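thoughts on both lines:
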Amino acid sequence: MSVIATVVIGYLAGSIPTGVLVGRMAGLGDVRDYGSGKTGFTNALRTMGIRWAILVIAVDVAKGAAPVLVGRFVFDEPWAAAAGGIAAVLGHTWPVFAGFRGGRGVATALGAFLAVSPLAAVVVLALALAVLYVFRYASVMSIVGVFAGFVAVVVLVAMDLAAAEYLLFGTLTMLAVEFNHVANIKRLIAGTEPKLGQGGQRRDATSA
């Protein structure tokens, strides 16, 4: 029952369409009509600016952390924590409250990793920001960062600093976020991927 509870909590929390709600607060309308068509931090930054984007990422991180913390400290059950984190990422990507059109799950995954191991998450975040500083591509930062998060979980489990159940969380979360970046990887290869802050114009009917 604890696993079912955190899955429900995680999916519903992840489904809160932060970018859509903040976009309306900012007077933009539906953020999915602009830029990449996603609801996360990167598209919020390119369409609404840093102030609103910070609000988006703060809530999205909290969405990922909350169900993991419930699993860890309310139910004291690693399976519940792991399942809640995965469900939050899936909810952010396919939100029931926003027509199943959400974001790529990066900030929500960061929140879940943060709740599993704050120290590992900080190290991963530092690496991700360094990648962003060098390459200026948010997608590269996300791809590298979530893989580093997966590696951090593997190391923690191997050193008996985290429960083995978190391996499932780390693996599925990494695969989900990487899958959500397939289109970005194709654009990176083609040389058409916009850098951080670029590409915030209104989308037309044929935009992918």
